[in-house]
Structure prediction request, 179 residues.
Amino acid sequence: MSASLKSGASDNAGLVTEMRPALIKYFQRKTGNPAEAEDLTQDVLLRALTHSNWHSESQAKGYIFRTAVNRWRDSLRRRRTRGAAIAWDEASAQQLHQTTGSENLPERVLIAREELNQVVRALQGMNVRTRTVLMLIKLEQMRVATVAEMLGISVSAVGKHLAKGIAQLALLRQPRDPP
Prediction:
């Protein structure tokens, strides 16, 4: 595959076809169901072909795998919410009060939101490849070799991107000097 994908739809279709086996493998590992894996893969590939304004193979692969991860999460969310009902009674409220220490709840919520915003900013500040590797391995719990195969890079390159991403996130845990 060429370094530039701007040359046309046939290059994009070729890349998408190339990615199909890795996507099926990913979804089969996640679902345990070949038919569902095929359906999810088809959804991702269709979306990839309809939104194929990529400038490089790396950008295309990042888009396709980010789409796959999001499609999997959407699938899980739908499963959990179908027919789900939340039982709420006085005992549940009391348990929530005991576990959250609600006297500090507003402060804890603000602190948690700020910490989450810091993580999001750190992730957005990473290059696409590092962020993709970090999220596939740490959040999606994929194996290094699988990520390397999916992204078309070496296992050692995946390890380097992972280490770089972890180091950037670890900077958030260091105490800061007061302003």
Remarks:
- Residues 1-7 have pLDDT under 50 and may be disordered.
